[in-house]
DNA sequence: AAGGCAAAGTTCACAGTGTCAACATTGGGT
DNA sequence: ACCCAATGTTGACACTGTGAACTTTGCCTT
């Protein structure tokens, strides 16, 4: 939190990421402008170019931070659950993350970002998939490399991810309950029944 | 295709939708500019304002046309399949639509569009859901209003929708096969096995 | 301690965007 | 034949992402 001189900000890069996520949380539509973020931080738009190659790189950093937080949330959920319920809890954590950070979630996936060539981003995303796969394997009592685990992981991921998107896009809105509740119910039913 | 005078275009509204979808197909990232579209059609940017309240309304019209085409494609797929395979074919049609029209697909769902208050758009989207529900009911040999059909529809929709998004976002790209093939396989497995 | 250099911010500039207000050109109905 | 409403155009404005040139400052070397 240390501030440098009036001229030199001190730790602009981290501040931009922090405030960028905050700004993303306010604008529901999810597109933020570089200049707006710079103004909020109290710095010129071009100052950001000392820390990120361009807007896309900045957004990629936000997304990477998002993946880290998502994985952290899932980790907590799994640890706090009795074994056998881990997969369900991880899925619910995924849904709740999307619900609480809709714009960030859409940035992490979604086409705004050009993921091509961003090494860190692909790394955290891959780690996220491996974590899910191990949860799926554990839920079925299988080895992580066993046949069928990969496919089951894909189906689970697809379901959770799809429910997240439909929820955020307001496709559950016309129903009585809260969209989050609808998605949670659908996920629970799927996990309890055979997937 | 009739052209009016040099000054009056003739049927600008339909042309904008047509060329808008074409333009969307070219720009993979999926955001098109009003002025670019107007230039392509051979008309001033402000001319579009005679037919659409603003850019959002234009995009909504594109999305609505997209929903119509999606539903048409699903209808064909279901009719051309033997009964019992209808649901799977409908889902595969959904996947292939997303694969062939990624930008349009993301526009139809996704936050670029402000769906609030666009009556036509919510209507076609609701029709799409009803069609899916009847396919789910038929696949399980149940009445459309039977208990559990709604939930099963949600799960199916979620899975297909999620696979579509993950596929488009390149999350299956690191695998050997084509992303479309990966998604189709996952869907087929889910439908064959109990969902 | 003095000096200088590279890192980190700033200002200026430019092309492109969505949209508003005012003006121009038409074709169809009285 | 006329006129008016529908349909286009021009000009303008605020805003965006980004490049080039300039300024300030903290740290490292002597």
UniProtKB/TrEMBL annotation, chains A, B:
SUPFAM superfamilies: Homeodomain-like (SSF46689), Tetracyclin repressor-like, C-terminal domain (SSF48498)
Protein name: TetR/AcrR family transcriptional regulator
MF (Gene Ontology): DNA-binding transcription factor activity; transcription cis-regulatory region binding
Record key words, sorted: DNA-binding, Transcription, Transcription regulation
DNA-binding region (UniProt annotation): 33-52
Signal sequence residues: none
Domain HTH tetR-type: 10-70
Top-level taxon in the UniProt lineage: Bacteria
Gene3D superfamilies documented for this protein: Tetracycline Repressor, domain 2
Transmembrane domains' residue ranges: none
